[in-house]
Amino acid sequence: MTTAETKRTIDAIWRIESAKIIAVLARMVRDIGLAEDLAQDALVIALERWPESGIPANPGAWLMAAAKRRAIDLLRRNKLRERKYEEIGRDMDPVHEPDFDAALDGNVGDDLLRLIFTTCHPVLSQEARVALTLRLLGGLTTEEIARAFLVSEPTVAQRIVRAKRTLAAARVPFEVPEKAELPARLSSVLEVLYLMFNEGYAATSGGSWIRPMLCEEALRLGRILAEIAPLEPEVHGLVALMEIQSSRFKARLSPSGEPVLLLDQNRALWDHLLIHRGLVALERAERIGGTLGPYSLQAAIAACHARARTADETDWARISALYDALAQLAPSPVVELNRAVALSMAFGPAVGLEIVDALMSEPSLKNYHLLPSVRGDLLMKLERKNEACEEFKRAASLTRNERERELLLSRASECVETTRFLKE
């Protein structure tokens, strides 16, 4: 194996193992910033030794053992908590060759759960939560996070540094929240994963409509969370939603990279393994939870699309009912806009347009490009093409995504061409 190949292999191993290592170290030293530094020290040692000695049979355990040694040395030097040191010493005797398989045993799942709750703590801003989660749990570099969100590296680096300082200053405990706090804290975790996935699924800005890396990372973290918090129905609901949505990636872009809307997609390109995984996760959420939560309801809506072999077979009446339930449980203008689309498909565009027109004065949707986009689509179906054209143009002026802007301007042109053809 060449040096370059070894480096790529180490990078891949680090991406897989880093979250577990940082989680265990954070439990030991009670400081996620320090835990990351210690984990990075272990990575540096690996980068120095493995090109010569070869990659160990169990590289994750090797890194874990090396990182724990660094933590033990630090605790000994600083004379921190003699009792804690004795406990850690019992876990790993630094005099003897460590048992690498045993190094990964213990409460790694619990430690990961603590780390997720810490990086997604409400004391942090939404941007900080996302950046810190991608960094510590996703193993992404600052450069990768900056590229994913189209912001500068220094901006991302500052968010991460400030997040660590904020957690330390607030003395946020490295623990799973108490039962009374759990719903609110879990909601913060799921919000981060949902935001991360949505930004990848339909990028708000830039030259690409989708950013698969963000979706893949959100889904990977969601799967981990589902394994270590198996009795939380909304965790499975969000995983189900992400699995089903991810199944459409190959069909969401044309060969030239242009967006393809849901009803126009070639469903033969959908990934049926991901659909199956999503449906299984949704069934698990339904078995655990009784009444479906917001993420599970959205997953149920996605499942309706996934089960339809063609666009014409979509059960829009059921989707409308699910949106009614979602609007009651988690009311918002965006949910209402989506409900309008479902009702228009089930009962005609005039029904949907009535709801959309009522949303036109909603302040929070003033600069939301999908509002005029949906209105344009409904006007188009009602043969009010001149009005539809203006709505598509307005939507194009509001979106910051280049691909989406091209699609909306194309739809505006179609309105003009159709009108001209009818006049002729």
UniProtKB/TrEMBL annotation:
SUPFAM superfamilies: Sigma2 domain of RNA polymerase sigma factors, Sigma3 and sigma4 domains of RNA polymerase sigma factors
Domain RNA polymerase sigma-70 region positions: 20-79
InterPro entries assigned to the protein according to its UniProt record, in alphabetical order: DUF6596, RNA_pol_sigma-70_dom, RNA_pol_sigma70_r2, RNA_pol_sigma70_r4_t2, RNA_pol_sigma_r2, RNA_pol_sigma_r3/r4-like, WH-like_DNA-bd_sf
Segments forming domain DUF6596: 185-285
Cited PANTHER family: BLL0085 PROTEIN (PTHR47756:SF1), BLL6612 PROTEIN-RELATED (PTHR47756)
Organism whose genome encodes this protein: Cohnella pontilimi
GO MF term list: DNA binding; sigma factor activity
Name this protein carries in UniProt: RNA polymerase sigma factor
Gene3D superfamilies: 1.10.1740.10, Winged helix-like DNA-binding domain superfamily/Winged helix DNA-binding domain (1.10.10.10)
Biological process per Gene Ontology, one example term: DNA-templated transcription initiation
RNA polymerase sigma factor 70 region 4 type domain span: 116-167
